[in-house]
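Re: weekly structure request thread

Next one in the queue (411 aa):
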Amino acid sequence: MTTPDVPGFSPEAARRDVPILHRTVNGRPLVWLDNGATTQKPRQVIEALAGFYATANSNIHRGAHTMAREATEMYEAGRAGVAQFLGAPSPESIVFVRGTTEGINLVAQSWGRDNLGPGDDILVPVLEHHANIVPWQQVAKETRARVVPVPLRPDGSIDQDAYADLLSMRTQLVVLSHASNVLGTVPPVKEMAALAHRYGAKVLVDGAQAVAHFPVDVQDLDADFYVFSGHKIYGPTGIGALYARPEVLEEMAPWQGGGNMIESVSFERTTFAPAPHRFEAGTGHISGVVGLLSALQWLSSFGRSAVAQYETQLMTYAQQALTAVPGLEVLGTAAERIGVLTFTLAGRDPADIAGWLDRDGIAVRAGHHCAQPSLAHYGVQAAARASLALYNTGEEVDRLVESLLRLQKSD
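Done, posted below.
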């Protein structure tokens, strides 16, 4: 197969920047199709991390010396870069967290504890990652609110009629993934947010699987909260960002206490720093912010629309190519989707599928993907998943299909 030709974008240019893609696994060139779990890092990110530790390593915000100022400037440049990347109104609407999971927990514990109560509803689509289900169950138990699942259609899209019926004046919060990590589904977030706001509900969007694949504008979406993880967008692990609408963030109490999030402390009274700093207790992942900014700049250099177009064409080819494998069924066929291809293979355990592919140097994920309700919708407990990124090629898809065909003929 010839890799899709999209003007203004070359996957080979991206591949040249990512050192790990040039290694071998079990004597075969690596095919990295586990991007839904984590993406590989370009040399620009690796060099940014090394450069920070080699030339600018210092704690931030509290030091008067040169390197403290330099590190602080780099950290706050990262905040401004994330705000620009998300279309946020200002850097002050961005809070750095360890990743999507911590961002959701921050909102659950800070906003949720103060704004949810007995009889309130939290609407949670069935396609959500566990990180966007469990924190709401925990805070609902504490506040006596109720988590209400929103069902899916057979194609893996959210049932919009059911969603509209479930909304009411009891609805205080709607949470939804901008793209599903199992089904690839991209819900109509803007329309769903507009409908939720008619009832006065807030909307939190899990962007972990979306931000690497297509442009995001939080103001256009009208999201109250938006969260993502750096390691799923070619950046380091342990760093992510939470966007919150400024007026909402300003009213939220701090979640964790410690240094960096205060104005003054005495045994009689403690006052807190303004947002976003009051949500960043302790020493943050400073080098992670530096690496995240480098990752966002690297991805943006290719042109977001061109990348999205390329990945869509590659996904279409992969969907067609996989139909050649006997007994293979892809879960989810929603019209709007990203390149996440979760599948079952008749008579094969997903872990065995992943093990077979690994012998051919092909990395996929197997298991429940931290989205057990999504799989239960299709009557399965586990599946294999191949997830695409901008550096994947048609030739790699062919290798995946060829290996699966050999697996089916191996008995």
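The chain has a mean pLDDT of 96. The chain has two domains: 11-32+303-408, 47-300.
Next request, please.
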